[in-house]
């Protein structure tokens, strides 16, 4: 009998899982609240060498080549720079990657991964509840449908309803920091930006505990590849502050209002930063509260499991969310197709629960930097001495390729 896998969420991990299973003959139904793959917030993502190796193992070669043609490789990020609030470079760190990597916009990544899944994704119909029984899982959706599957995989993000139903607790807890991010098109006149972005990412620290990350997507000449979603050049900025330093109206603000709030948060900074914030397309500006895993602990089920942010959500300061979701999905697909179901589910649970401690070790020091650098004295020392935590900055540079980062 053909295995029927239900997937809650058509994010990066959910779509990789669906493609991997379908490529090997399994039946898949994906339930997604968005109306299409293009309806997504978020900016550029980094897929590291293990994630790319996992994609090559489980996806059809045509999909991997379409992904590569939609993004840029390691040549786009050879340096990580630390700036002060006046825009002066205080530290340059070389970034050397081993193996294949990919930097790609979230929308492009999602659209490519959704290619060929027509009929398998129920767009606009999210999972609201599920119940297990001896023969499988009954999935209930926002549209009132009930669908029976053999296995349900919660890939529905940090606010996962599947996680709450399975474990009795949320997937995420607040990290105490929120970012506002936006994109500036670079295929038309735009404010000047630091030239260091032509070779990588930049992080700036300044008054009020604010942190600014900047990244430029500057694709070179392209070869047409079927299924690719090439993106025009753009710059991504992200302004992060401790939650208590944002105005109370932030959560209810629209794109244009969010941009104005982010610009006001950079009072005292160089006009170069404020001009970039002001130049963002209003529809691209969004708020991103940072989250941490609530309490990742084992659950008991032979029919339901979790992957990605639904089990180990991490703030973007780890730069690892997309890569870990891809690795989770690839590993689960391989297990489901090669092991008895109880063994496959046990292996998947063990693997995803081991992820959170590792990524948090990289994410939390960066959040700690931001809190400490709200002090003018510590900030002056840090920028004047080119940041004492060079080892931490090197690790950050290896991980943080995709904004929004604070």
From TrEMBL:
Pfam families: FAD_binding_3. Keywords: FAD, Flavoprotein, Monooxygenase, Oxidoreductase. The keyword Oxidoreductase applies. Residues 4-167, 298-337 form the FAD-binding domain. SUPFAM superfamilies: FAD/NAD(P)-binding domain. This is FAD-dependent oxidoreductase. It comes from Geodermatophilus maliterrae. The lineage of its organism: Bacteria, Bacillati, Actinomycetota, Actinomycetes, Geodermatophilales.
């Amino acid at each position: 009998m053909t295995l029927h896998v239900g997937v809650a969420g058509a994010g990066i991990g959910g779509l990789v899982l669906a493609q991997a299973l379908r490529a090997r003959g399994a039946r898949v139904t994906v339930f997604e609240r968005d109306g299409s793959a293009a309806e997504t917030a978020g900016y550029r993502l980094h897929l590291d060498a293990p994630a790319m190796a996992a994609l090559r193992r489980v996806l059809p070669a045509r999909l991997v080549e379409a992904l590569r043609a939609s993004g840029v490789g390691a040549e786009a990020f050879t340096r990580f720079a630390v700036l002060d609030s006046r825009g002066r470079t205080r530290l340059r760190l070389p970034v050397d990657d081993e193996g294949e990597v990919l930097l790609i916009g979230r929308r492009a990544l999602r659209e490519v991964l959704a290619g060929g899944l027509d009929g398998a994704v129920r767009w606009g119909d999210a999972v609201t509840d599920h119940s297990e029984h001896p023969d499988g899982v009954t999935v209930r959706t926002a549209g009132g449908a009930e669908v029976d599957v053999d296995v349900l995989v919660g890939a529905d993000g940090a606010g996962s309803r599947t996680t709450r139903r399975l474990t009795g607790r949320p997937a995420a807890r607040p990290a105490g920091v929120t970012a506002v991010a936006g994109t500036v098109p670079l295929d038309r006149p735009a404010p000047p930006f630091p030239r260091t972005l032509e070779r990588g990412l930049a992080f700036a620290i300044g008054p009020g505990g604010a942190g600014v990350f900047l990244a430029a997507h500057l694709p070179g000449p392209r070869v047409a590849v079927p299924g690719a979603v090439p993106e025009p050049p753009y710059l991504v900025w992200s302004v992060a502050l401790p939650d208590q330093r944002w105005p109370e109206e932030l959560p209810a603000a629209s794109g244009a209002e969010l941009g104005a709030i982010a610009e006001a948060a950079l009072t005292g900074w160089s006009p170069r930063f404020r001009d970039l914030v002001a130049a963002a397309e209003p529809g691209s500006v969004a708020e991103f509260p940072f989250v941490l895993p609530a309490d990742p602990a084992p659950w008991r089920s032979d029919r339901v499991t979790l992957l990605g942010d639904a089990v180990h959500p991490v703030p973007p300061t780890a730069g690892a969310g997309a890569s870990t979701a891809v690795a989770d999905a690839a590993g689960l697909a391989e297990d489901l197709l090669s092991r008895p179901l109880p063994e496959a589910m046990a292996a998947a649970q063990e693997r995803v629960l081991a992820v959170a401690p590792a990524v948090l070790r990289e994410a939390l020091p960066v959040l700690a930097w931001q809190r400490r650098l709200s002090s003018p004295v510590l900030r002056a020392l840090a920028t004047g001495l080119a940041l004492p935590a060079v080892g931490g900055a090197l690790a950050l540079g290896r991980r943080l390729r995709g904004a929004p980062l604070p």
